[in-house]
Amino acid sequence: DGISFDDITVLVDNTFIDMDRVGTPSSSADWQRVAVDLDDASITHSVPFAADFGIALSQYGMGSWPGYGMHWRNFELGIIEEKYALPGWSHGPVTAGGIDDWLLEEIAGGHKWTLHANHSSKYSNSSDCWLETPSVSIPYGSSDVNFSFLHRVRMEAGNDFGWVEVSSNDGDSWQVLDIDDYTHPYDGHQAFSGQIGERTVSVLLDSFAGQTIKFRFMFHSDASTRRNGWELDNFEITGSATGLLINSIAFKPDPSMGSWYFNEVDVYLGSTEETVFIDGGEFDKSSLAFMGTHEVYQSSIDEWVTISFVTPFVLADGYNLAVKMEMSQTGTSSGYQWVVGTHPNTTRYATSAGADPTWLLVAGQRPACVIDVDGVGLRGVDQGSPERQDKIPLAFGAEFGDFEAIYTPEDFGFSGATPWIAGGEDNDWEIGIPLFVPDVDPALIPRNENVIAGTDLTGDGYYCQSPWNWMRSGAYSMAETAAFDSVALSYDRCLRKSFNDEALIQMAFTTSAEPPTEETEWITVKNCDYDDNIWLTDVVQLTHYFEEAREHGKTHYFVRFVLSAGFFLEKGGWNIDNIGFYGRYAN
Prior knowledge:
The protein is mostly beta strands.
């Protein structure tokens, strides 16, 4: 029955009695495999791996087996074979105990999925196995969505088969993906079989827009005649989607309230045409994009709780943002509240002491919210609201809680499909609300309502060294009526810049809603040489520029604010609000 041992140790030269413990089995009474990586152990304990190693198995405690000690069997010393893995991918046999042939194999300096796990060049007989991809979310409003992969097939024609399945409910059910390149019928559907040279397979996925899906590559072989199998490589999903690319979402707790921690918060985002909830219920999570499980901690005073996403979410044009959060907490924290605003029928929530709620009730308040939009910056709603709530978005006094809300693009200051964007070199523009405004800039005044745009509003407050960046409007249509007697741009500003830096206001006039592509198309209408200590209203006369644009048949116009700085003495830069164009008819 073997010998009872406990700890494994490493000796150098087999002559020293000083030993370092490198492996400790658990106290479980069940049989288990214990492996020790001697390469890592030698590095950790500063022993040259070229030295002679001795292995010792030590026994602690007194008494007979099985009450005391450890029972060892099948002691082996060998080389660990290097294997490759891809995060998010998985594979296995169709039935427990069956054959799994899938292998991520190194081929010609790269890696491909093959069926060579049990043979150097052939698949097994009587093999039924699957290879599953990670999940991918296809945004609402996407078009020309195409899934493609490179493959080569060497199977026994008409007896061994490969095919592709797709799931839109996280693998609860699967359907065979309709692919034109299938060659043979199998088990009521089409599949690949026989000999197919290396080629790219493409499948249109527009019908899955707005869903989170994943794929499964299936293989079946009969009891005889093995071949080289199926090689898979270069998986890709492409498509077109226009909208807002959201990098994070944030909510604001009341800083005076308690301490708390949520150890598990599942976040989902989606696109919806609805603006309010008609009744209670719950979103279909298969129609939402899962944005990950997050830990949410109490923030510092006046800071928002921000949840950042590994993969941004695309809110398609013409849709509203659907937010769902499912929370659990190991202890029911107390004494905190969240900033909310009154928006009837835009929120649903429920709490429970024992399980995840499945029916959410409609509410009249909605959490203040900030989103970080790629190329735009921070946009928020209800950030200055005096209202408080202790159940949304994360619930006080409950172990489980569900929260859902609908936010429109207009809530975040977007009107239409052409929001303000920022760009250029060392771009640190932030468009929307600042989470706080550093002391290098004057405090906001009531008419700003804490909703402004500017350079570096939420970092240290100073613009970058040697930037050339800008904030640009979307396209505005030229008026179709007769020429105005006068046209002017009005805006509120607090501009703080160094003597060797430039702050410019520029206009561009075009014949379409597409923004200019060449710098020569921009006209500087004002060089703003200011170092303000307070907020001021500025007016820029533009009548001449609009008259020329009309004479040349221009149909649209854009405005942008530019910052160009040198190598030293950075200041607070642009702070801008209440931008508007005003005109007076000639008659």
